[in-house]
Amino acid sequence: MRKVTELNQNWIFVKSAKDAGEAAAADGILVSLPHTWNAVDGQDGGNDYYRGTCWYRLALDAPELTGGERAYLEFDGAAMTADVYLNGEKLARHEGGYSRFRADITGKMAKEGNVLLVGVDNSDNNRVYPQKADFTFYGGLYRKVRLVVVPENHFAMEYYGGDGIRVTPEVTLAGEGRTKAGAEITVEVWAEGSAGYTDITVAGETRRAVVTEGYAKAVFYLETVHLWDGMDDPYLYTAKAELEGGDVVETYFGCRSFRIDSQKGFFLNGRPYPLRGVSRHQDRAGAGNALTFDMHREDMEFIKEIGANTLRLAHYQHAQEFYDLCDRNGIIVWAEIPYITMHMSGGRENTFNQMRELVVQNYNHPSIVCWGLSNEITAASTVNEELLENHRELNRLCHELDKTRKTVMANVFMLETDSPLLEIPDINSYNLYFGWYVGEMGQTDEFFDEYHKTYPDRCIGFSEYGADANPAYHSADPDRGDYTEEYQCLYHEHMLRMIEERPWLWATHVWNMFDFAADGRDEGGRHGENQKGLVTIDRQTKKDAFYLYKAYWSGEAFVHLCGSRYVDRTEEVTRVKVYSNQPYVSLYVDGQLLEEQEGSRIFIFEVPVTGVHRITAQAGAYRDEITIKKVTETNKDYLFVKEGDIVNWFDQEDFRKDCYSIGDTLGEIAKSPEANAIVQKMTAKAAGSRGDVADSVKDNPALQRMLQRMTLQSMLKQAGDVIKPEEIKALNDALQKIKKVN
């Protein structure tokens, strides 16, 4: 029988040491795991964000080993590269910050005085992914560490961090129903030592299998199987294997079938099951990526509240605890490796190793239906033969390791749809940000319609879409780039309508469920954050758009009044928006009924404002309430673009409509060589508000076409503090001197 001891207390953290010898003797601070040294600096966007090598030291009691037992150290995650030393001897090196690995310490321990030292490095390099991406690369021992003692005959401990057991259910459905199904369940085990047999148990039936060259399998037949049926009924079986000699492993698994149709979308257990959900990063304010189980569980409760039935777990392998939560709650998962943004010639083998670990360690999770090969890999790399071959080999490796699931890619919105890269995986999705970074929201509709018409036999999904919102910012006239909650709502209202009209989208994933740390960002009034989440990074505030998705997806009755943080209003008649999944909503002002509406999900009321008013929305037994107040001047705390930053020149008496201005689109301006030359340098500077966009503009025809429909004013607003007010004023003045080309 194996013995497992958690090693999460009494670690000494040493931030600066030139080598293992110095770290072994240096003073440090006492920490417990999980731990990251970037819990604060990784989220503030400042120059103190530390990427380098830090050290963790632990006084380790030697376990008593008898009868050929072996001892292993098990690390659930060490970001990004880890070197493991015991008593000064280097025992292991692991490159990749998101997967489990083990180090064999048998015969390396003294009876007493053992010193375990782990050097963890998250510094920039050219071989370990990720290296360039829009999220913080935390460093640390941010998941649990264990001492595992196994018998001489034990299940494999050193094969890519797996547990030595793999369960493959093959479900046979009777017709299109869900109640009649059978399953053939193959359980495979890998063992080390000299065990002659293993007993394998599934659904109360035990079979003995002979271990030959470290491998054994047993096949079970269930004439009537209880299906793992998504959120409706996420039923889990247990497979247990026991070796001669006493080692035991157990794993949960689920029996389900799925298919993906290019015209009808995703099917689960024979029935249409549209995948509509969100993406998630594994960090939060104050903790970084060092999450506790309670934090994982709280995240799952947020996701369940909006009614999402799928998760894209981006952009790396997540904690086993979270995959377990997805299994138990019936959430369909896209799992991926951090092969992202930039192809590195020296990182080829690292992509293969991280994929092997992802698949081997997560094979038994019924929630996972696809393996992600890469994300936006052409954002900072060209599509050349080396990049294509790397993806072909990754695709082949996935199917070699797992013949039951699909491979998928998330493609950057600048990638041409006829690229040979899209032909490699089984299915594809696109990350599109029309209406936020470039273009207009309606271009999303056009993109997917054109793609579906051109490639009717390809399965296509919507892997990222979103707009940043700071809950402090508000506007009665929201516009792209203003970071208001109101614009985020308008954006997602459009995208939800677009998605609902296109059932052939195999899966859609909001970017993102939660705001997350992005050390390179400084925008929207927040340092070091991407604010596209439906919930803030501290999990304290559900933005109004959160309730929009709840209205579309959740069966839990509710009503939500938008604008609870938008109190001060200058308009005489203000627009009040309500989200609800109920068919009728009544709006009361100061206790008096203003209006009743019958509708679906989105209800809009026009409310006169004369003073301080209590606004109440009621839908059946459900109520919500906010307060609004009439003011004479705009509350400047509501504005990302402060008053005076961009003057509304179009209201001035001397404004010339027959001349160019910042209100014109880039396509219109491009008709005039003189006007176009004036704005070229500034538009390149403005596009830099997202670095990978700026890098891709010059030589990317697809992106250039998208930019043609974007107004210069929108681009400048999106750039925020990058472009100074006096520069904008000077630019507009110069354009007003140039006659428009007919």
Structural class: alpha+beta
Radius of gyration: 28 Å
Counted by DSSP, the helix tally is 14
Strand order of the largest sheet: 30-29-28-27-26-25-24-31
Shape: globular
- Low-confidence region ranges: 643-647, 689-696
CATH architectural arrangement of the largest domain: Alpha-Beta Barrel
CATH homologous superfamily designation of the largest domain: Glycosidases
- Average pLDDT figure: 93
Please, could you describe this protein's structure?
The chain has 742 residues and is α+β, with helices and mostly antiparallel strands. A hairpin with a 2-residue loop joins β14 (197-202) and β15. The strands form ten sheets. It has an eight-stranded parallel β-sheet. A six-stranded antiparallel β-sheet has the order 3-2-4-9-6-7. The protein has five domains: 3-150, Galactose-binding domain-like (Jelly Rolls); 165-258, Immunoglobulin-like (Sandwich); 259-556, Alpha-Beta Barrel (TIM Barrel), CATH 3.20.20; 568-636, Immunoglobulins (Immunoglobulin-like); 642-735, no CATH class. Residues 643-647 and 689-696 have low confidence and may be disordered.
